[in-house]
Amino acid sequence: MQDFLEKLLDELIETGTDLYIPTTGASIGIFENICQLKLPADLKELYRFCNGFGPDKEDQFQVLSLTEATMELVQYGKGQRGSRFVLAEYMLYCDWWEVELTPEAETSYRIVNAGHRSGSPLVLTHSIEEFLTRYLAGGVFGNGGLYDWHEEKELELRRLD
Questions:
Q1: Where are the domains of the chain?
Q2: For the segment 92-143, what is each residue's pLDDT rounded down to a tens digit?
Q3: Cα dist. 62→8, 13, 105, 158 in Å?
Q4: What is the chain's percent helix, strand, coil content, to nearest 5?
Q5: Across-strand partners of 97?
Q6: 123 φ, ψ to 5°?
Q7: Entry's InterPro entries (predicted)?
Q8: At the top level of CATH, which class does the domain 2-129 belong to?
Q9: Taking the CB of residue 149, how many other CB atoms lie within 10 A of it?
């Protein structure tokens, strides 16, 4: 994960995207207590590296800080205590992506495109590294980016039906 985080840093600096100041173990504990959930190890590592980033200049995409994710849950009802929280959004919540914890939350979770215009939440991955790699590859709208990925997953589901 450390190699990936260094690559993330290089790419975000190159694009001029702001990285938020890393969080502390105490702040992670406060987030977990308020939201009644336990973050998996790789998400804790990401937030200790940078407590979110953005918005980028092109897509107005951002990975939320733990403080903002808490506010979205507590004040605006995005997510659900004990099971999901908003990870990222673009253009002031025209779309957003949530982390959905599974019963074995210490090691397992899903990242769901929860606010997509298609209306149905769609599981994209079980890995923060894969999610951010797709974002770095094509942003929200570019080739190989988050919306291409959404379409790929929808096609996979149609083939299975």
A1: 2-129
A2: 888 999 999 977 656 689 999 988 776 778 999 999 999 999 999 999 999 9
A3: 13, 14, 24, 30
A4: 45, 20, 40
A5: 88, 113
A6: -70, 125
A7: Knr4/Smi1-like_sf (IPR037883)
A8: alpha beta
A9: 20
